[in-house]
Specification:
mainly alpha; transmembrane helix; membrane
Length: about 70
């Protein structure tokens, strides 16, 4: 569904302003390459928060608390 929405928006942009649509098509891989390290950083930070949460919950889990899954 996301791809269909993107394609429809791009085709609409192509009809309204074709140079802008071509520029967006050419710059999309560059934007993806710029965003890739930020996604990896976000995954690493999420992992660190999960580790800190697990360390804080360790005493309770050792005493038998399971939490909501």
């Amino acid at each position: 569904m996301k791809t269909l929405t993107f394609l429809t928006a791009w085709l609409l942009l192509l009809v309204l302003c074709w140079p802008l649509a071509l520029m967006a098509l050419l710059l999309a891989p560059l934007v993806w390459l710029i965003c890739l390290p930020l996604r990896l950083l976000g995954i690493a930070i999420d992992g660190m928060f999960a580790l800190v949460a697990a360390l804080f919950m360790l005493p309770a889990r050792l005493l038998g608390y399971r939490g909501a899954h």
